[in-house]
TrEMBL record:
PANTHER family: 2-OXOGLUTARATE (2OG) AND FE(II)-DEPENDENT OXYGENASE SUPERFAMILY PROTEIN-RELATED. Residues 31-136 form the Fe2OG dioxygenase domain. It holds the Pfam family 2OG-FeII_Oxy. This is Fe2OG dioxygenase domain-containing protein.
Amino acid sequence: MNILAEQITKLIFKSLDISGEEEEMDQWWVDPSTALQLNSYPSCPDPSRALGLAPHTDTSLITILHQSSTTINGGGLQVFNEGVGWVPVVPVSGALVVNVGDLLHILSNGRFINVLHRVFVNQNLQRLSMAYFYSPPIGFKVAPLAKLVNSSGQVPRYRSVTLREFISIKAKSLDKALSFIEN
Ligand SMILES: O=C(O)CCC(=O)C(=O)O
Ligand SMILES: [Fe+2]
């Protein structure tokens, strides 16, 4: 998983015209912060009165998700699409879902949007998912990438923050966390 996450991150940097080979990033690839979370959503007699997981964004850089194929009668993962509303992420056999997390939103100065998502439960079936959260080292300073901001004449929307600090801001302010580091 680590190798896959590293490759996806390097592809994202390439798409942003950021090589990812700056010296300060060497440590990133050696010692990333990672966590594997196993989620189980039991069936629920009345799904309209329960949520599997409340709407949230992930604190990670990216999250790689495997979901079981429970979509019958609704239920499962949904992402919020501005102007459209909640959209189901239908499981595709053999495919993984990659979510953009808060740290990629910060690094890319908002170019990659941290996806708001939630999980609905199913009336008859249990649903399982596995989420692999991939982030830079816990003490690594994350800020809008200078190369990106300078080349496009943008102003950095966020101040620099370590994952350690951002986790503690988020524990207190949840979905308002980004506004606490806004410039
Ligand atoms: O179960 C899912 O599909 C999503 C899980 C999730 O969003 C999370 O663990 O942060
Ligand atoms: Fe999540």
